[in-house]
Amino acid sequence: MDEQVAVRPHPGPAADPVSENPPVAREKLEEIFEDIRNHPLYDMELHGCLNCGICTATCPSAHYYDYSPREIVQLLWTENLEGIYDAMQEKIWACAQCYTCAARCPFENSPGGLVMIMREVAIKHGMQSAKDVLRPFSRVLLKVISTGNQLAPNMITRDAFPDWGPNVSKVSAPLDVLRKAIPVPTMHTTDTAWIVNLRTSVELYTIWEETGVLQQIEMVDENLFDVIRDVMDEKREQYEEWLLEQEEDEHEA
Fold first, then answer.
1. C-alpha span between 22 and 28 (Å, rounded)
2. Which of 121, 89, 55, 123 is nearest to 47 (CA)?
3. Domain check: are 62 and 139 in the same one?
4. Fewer CB atoms near the end CB (10 Å): N or C, the chain?
5. What whole-number distance in Å separates Cα of residue 40 and Cα of residue 207?
């Protein structure tokens, strides 16, 4: 008589018994892990793990947050799908991306690089943790994409930097006048650090489109994406008009 082999039931959805959030289907957990594992940099960042803890011992974030680089490596190395998903809800956002872990690991792992991959996948899947963390940066993202600069002189105000002490009084200087004294003409503005020409702006937009950056922004903040798209359309129209003017000038010449 043939021996009967016990068949293990397929694991059901993962759920936190103390959380009100609905359970996550096993298929979703596998999909998330596959996106992490198929990232082009994954095999370069993870080579094995001795579980020595050197990465965590030298990690600045581990001293102040519920975060451990060793835990991240172990979760991925052992393919702990539930643990990976749980870490993507909060822990991966505590990493400061200093890469001290990568410099210390005897296996040449890069927990910081793995965290970056996990963050990208969190954004791709529209996780609430990604939306919550990135929402405060909407103003900076809009500034970068619309002007090509991260900061502008008119963003530096006394109210925003009270901890500067007596030196904050210098902020009240006539910035418009001072900026016009700078030798480089592209810096004669306070609305942005320097003026980026239309061609460069359009090229940057194209890069962000082709590399999926704009798609990620749409996933995180639809309102911000709509504003950026309007800015993009306007600048592209301006660039097309400029090209037509150049052609007309060439024909007249």
1. 13
2. 55
3. no
4. N
5. 18
Task: List the domain range (segments joined by +) for residue 51.
Answer: 26-125
CA distance 82 to 87: 9
Give the pLDDT mean for 209-233: 90
SS3 per-residue string spanning the chain: CCCCCCCCCCCCCECCCCCCCCCECHHHHHHHHHHHHCCCCHHHHCCCCCCCCHHHHCCCHHHCCCCCHHHHHHHHHCCCHHHHHHHCCCHHHHCCCCCHHHHHCCCCCCHHHHHHHHHHHHHHCCCHHHHHHHHHHHHHHHHHHHHCCCCCHHHCCCCCCHHHHHHHHHHHCCHHHHHHCCCCHHHCCCCCCCCCCHHHHHHHHHHHHHCCHHHHHHHHCHHHHHHHHHHHHHHHHHHHHHHHHHHHHHHHC
35, 139: one domain = no
Average pLDDT in the chain: 86
- Same domain flag for 77 and 144: no
What is the rounded average pLDDT of the residues 159-173?
A: 69
Backbone phi and psi for residue 39, each to the nearest 5 degrees, phi listed first: -65, 140
Query: Dihedral of CA 55/56/57/58: which sign?
Result: positive
Per-residue model confidence (pLDDT) at position 127:
94
